[in-house]
Amino acid sequence: MEDFDNYFKTNKETWNKKVAIHAESNMYELEAFKAGKSSLMQYELEALGNVNGKSLLHLQCHFGQDTLSWARMGAECFGVDLSDEGIKLAKQLNDKLQLDAKFVCCNVLDTSKHISKRFDIVYTSYGVIGWLPDLKPWAKMITERLKVGGTFYMVEFHPILWMFDYVDSKPKLKYHYSQDEVIYEEYQGTYANPSSKIVSKEYGWNHGLSEVVNALIEAGLEIDYLNEHDESPYDVFPDLVKTEAGMYKMKNQLFPMIFELKATKR
Q1: Which of 28, 147, 201, 218 has its CA 20 to 30 A from that of 166?
Q2: In sequence order, what are the residues at sequence separation of 6 or more whose Cβ sits closer than 8 angstroms to the Cβ of residue 87?
């Protein structure tokens, strides 16, 4: 029997250590964020448009920059994350920026135990579903937290990217596209600061697109669209090339880097 409690505990400890490092990294641009720069990227901004006056639940929010960026745009926001250090910093930023977002520390799968409110929008982005062993309870929770007519939107790294092992220099094809078995990785540094002394210990799972789509349909959502894109807004994979639009692509790219999905609760 798999020890999911230990997997989540290990991941929480790693993410707690990452928070301070990420807050100081160039990638998260925290000082620019405090001065008014949005952390939101082109895909999610175009997908969700005007959020003023809408309620929004942000799943796996790290230390809350996206949550607070939506709040700056007039949304009534709640953010959820596994890391207590992340939630602690999110609350500090919320107070400093004089916003009114709320933050809850819990496993994302337990969100409905901590939040009973229903939302116009549930949002999650970039490097989130790989931390979850099973997407069915995740999708069920999303449906529970949406109002009728509400929108679920996710933008995420394409599952093909997670078939590779990036720990030793050149990426090596190693994992199944949709792998049931847990994947354990231990490496120095983080994606936001590879030279950091932190040792990241992480348990993760690969989920193919059909698993994502079918979990959401089974939970009662109607899929509005599924898009795949070659360009990533983040330079977090080896040897990416910056495009004229300020995004990142692979040299000789043969598969997408990003997918986005929008769904409605009918």
Answers
A1: 28
A2: 63, 64, 79, 81, 103, 104, 105
**DSSP per-residue string spanning 125-143:** ESS-GGG-S-HHHHHHHHH
CATH number of the structural domain spanning residue 257: 3.40.50.150
Q: How distant is the alpha carbon of residue 154 from its chain centre?
A: 8
Domain that holds residue 249: 4-265
CA–CA dist 229, 259 (Å, integer): 6
Count of the separate structural domains present in the chain: 1
Provide the 8-state DSSP code for 88. H
- Rg over CA atoms, the chain: 18
Express each pLDDT in 224-253 by its tens digit. 999 999 999 999 998 899 999 999 999 999
SS3 105: strand
Q: Are strands 146-157 and 258-265 parallel, antiparallel or unpaired?
A: antiparallel
Q: Encode pLDDT of 98-127 as tens digits.
A: 999 999 999 999 999 999 999 999 999 999
pTM, 2 dp: 0.96
Whole-number Å distance between alpha carbons of 88 and 91? 5
> What letter would DSSP give residue 193?
B
pLDDT in tens, 46-55: 999 999 999 9
Structure tokens at 193: 């600061």
Q: What's the confidence (pLDDT) of residue 168? A: 74
CA dihedral (18, 103, 69, 232) in degrees, to 10, reads 40
